[in-house]
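Ops channel
N.P.: pipeline sanity check, posting one input/output pair.
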């Protein structure tokens, strides 16, 4: 007897599992039961599983009977004429959705020509194995799988136009490409998703060659004149907000220019950009740590409510400042109310980001790289007809990565530019290379895409032929200006007295075990000593019991609170070590510090 389960619960036994499965499938295809029910017989467990629950991934397949697909030309014609829809195909039992369990019992053909009598289903198209981002890659079947994965991942990091209602949105952080373009070598998904509204990159002329070593190790070289004409310019929009909160006892925040004398008043100069209402005006240029919205808040939690200190001493400065390391221009201001009915002010800043050395770019084939050098146009190599590349890409990036798709895209991009029309090359339906070669020959070029190029600095021609074509490049979100960070002295954390963490908190750069080894290897002992005492402190230690003593400054004496002894010495140590001994004490471990004679 075979066990039968419904959504994981045992509901009975059967002697004829095949008949149950056949009946359920027939009823589902005829529309007598829901099309969301899936059923499977797992022979190795000898169980029938019927699934109706939510959360299953299901995918559509064409039903095949006696080696022939149920989807016919008549169906396709009716869909084109809009006489039929997708849901009609499901109702008629032409297409059905399978989940992972039922797929175990299915035998799926990839293409109609592969069909045999044994097949139960046919794929709509081989391309449907790819996800949304991956569908944007042209010629993906010519790349290695991991590169397609990388390309797909970086598609989501590219800067483009993510939304058309941008002026009305208030996103915390947003990047917008100024002159975005649609790829000239497209795939089917570009048309399905109307990609022209949300393009995420540029079509650039790419030459594959080494150039004085500045593009080694995945770096790329970019044309300075192209950048000056607007290539890969983008804007960073960041939103800052302030809420006028109400507190117990009828107190509330005040938005305006703070008065002198309050706690934390930074001086009159800090509010030079603010008009009378305390909110900065649009199109004002600001630098890091400058005030956007002036605000003061009452001091709270000082004794009981009737003991509040009155006057300026009870007010602290809580203005909204620009983040450390960021500048920009005030783009737009929104004044509204929060859910609690408080006044809410949002200020959107914009900052122009031009490509600079260290900014990250990537093609659609997982070939990512940072700018290694920006060269003026007159020093760049050029072809016989005067074409100057925008990007010089290192040839060593091709053999080990095996991204032949990029070479084919460049060939197709060159054909597309010469013919003046967009080409489409989605997965498993590529434009044949032979066709591209014929077109190039017809247009008077070498059929392999290579051209003779000349050195821009000397005018001599390079002895080797250089492959040059058009590719779609993306500017990624990893910009040097958002990441560059250094500090000398600055704020420290309360707990460990070590420097704070992170760029926005003016934090330090942590040296770990490996960085220490590098400094030792360099013989830079003094640097090492200097680096590793960021929390150096003097702690009074009792000589007798080895615990931390007390330094009573009012009576000007040092004594031990444990044994009462007065033999106390100051010991230099890391504050984090002192913290460790405190934690050990809390776990009832006695950390005795043995102090030698001075």
């Amino acid at each position: 007897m075979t066990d039968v389960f419904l959504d994981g619960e045992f509901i009975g036994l059967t002697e004829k599992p095949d008949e149950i499965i056949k009946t359920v499938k027939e009823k589902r295809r005829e529309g007598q039961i829901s099309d969301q029910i899936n059923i499977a017989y797992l022979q190795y467990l000898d169980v029938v599983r019927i699934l109706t629950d939510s959360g299953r991934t299901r995918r559509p397949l064409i039903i095949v009977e006696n080696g022939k697909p149920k989807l016919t030309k008549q169906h396709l014609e009716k869909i084109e004429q809009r006489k039929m829809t997708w849901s009609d195909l499901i109702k008629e039992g032409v297409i059905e959705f399978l989940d992972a369990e039922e797929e175990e019992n299915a035998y799926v053909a990839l293409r109609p020509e592969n069909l045999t009598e044994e097949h139960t289903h046919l794929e709509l198209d081989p391309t449907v194995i790819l996800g949304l981002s991956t569908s944007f890659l042209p010629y993906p079947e010519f790349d290695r799988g991991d590169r397609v994965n990388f390309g797909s991942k970086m598609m989501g990091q590219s800067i483009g136009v993510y939304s058309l209602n941008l002026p009305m949105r208030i996103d915390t952080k947003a990047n917008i490409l100024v002159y975005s373009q649609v790829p000239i070598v497209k795939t089917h998904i570009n048309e399905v998703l109307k990609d022209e509204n949300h393009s995420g990159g540029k079509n650039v002329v790419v030459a594959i060659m080494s150039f004085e070593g500045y593009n080694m190790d995945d770096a790329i070289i970019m044309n300075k004149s192209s950048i000056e004409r607007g290539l890969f310019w983008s804007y960073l929009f960041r939103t800052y907000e302030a809420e006028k909160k109400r507190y117990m006892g009828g107190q509330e925040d005040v938005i305006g220019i703070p008065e002198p004398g309050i706690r934390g008043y930074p001086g009159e100069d800090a509010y030079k950009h603010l008009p009378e209402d305390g909110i900065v005006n649009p199109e004002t240029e600001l630098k890091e740590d400058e005030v956007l919205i002036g605000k003061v808040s009452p001091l709270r939690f000082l004794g009981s409510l009737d003991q509040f200190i009155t006057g300026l001493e009870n007010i602290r400065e809580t203005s909204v400042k620009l983040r450390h390391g960021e500048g920009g221009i005030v783009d737009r201001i929104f004044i509204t109310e929060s859910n609690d009915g408080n006044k809410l002010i949002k200020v959107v800043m914009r900052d122009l980001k031009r490509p600079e050395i260290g900014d990250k770019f990537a093609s659609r084939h997982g070939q990512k790289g940072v700018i290694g050098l920006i060269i003026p146009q007159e020093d760049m190599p050029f072809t016989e007809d005067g074409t100057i590349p925008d990007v010089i890409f290192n040839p060593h990036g091709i053999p080990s990565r095996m991204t032949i798709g990029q070479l084919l895209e460049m060939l197709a991009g060159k054909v597309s530019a010469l013919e003046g029309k967009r080409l489409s090359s989605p997965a498993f339906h590529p434009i044949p290379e032979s066709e591209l070669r014929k077109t190039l020959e017809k247009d008077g070029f070498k059929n392999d895409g290579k051209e003779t190029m000349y050195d821009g600095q000397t005018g001599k021609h390079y002895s080797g032929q250089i492959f040059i074509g058009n590719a779609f490049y993306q500017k990624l979100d990893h910009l040097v200006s958002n990441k560059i960070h250094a500090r000398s002295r600055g704020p420290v954390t309360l707990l460990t007295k070590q420097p704070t963490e992170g760029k926005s908190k003016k934090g330090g750069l942590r040296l770990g075990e490996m960085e220490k080894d590098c400094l030792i290897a360099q013989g830079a002992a003094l640097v090492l000593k200097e680096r590793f005492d960021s929390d150096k402190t003097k702690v009074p230690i009792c000589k007798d019991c080895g615990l931390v003593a007390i330094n009573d400054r009012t009576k000007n004496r040092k004594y031990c609170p444990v044994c009462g002894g007065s033999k106390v010495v100051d010991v230099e140590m890391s504050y984090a070590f002192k913290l460790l001994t405190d934690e050990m004490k809390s776990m009832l471990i006695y950390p005795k510090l043995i102090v030698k004679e001075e």
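N.P.: looks fine end to end. The longest strand covers residues 234-244.
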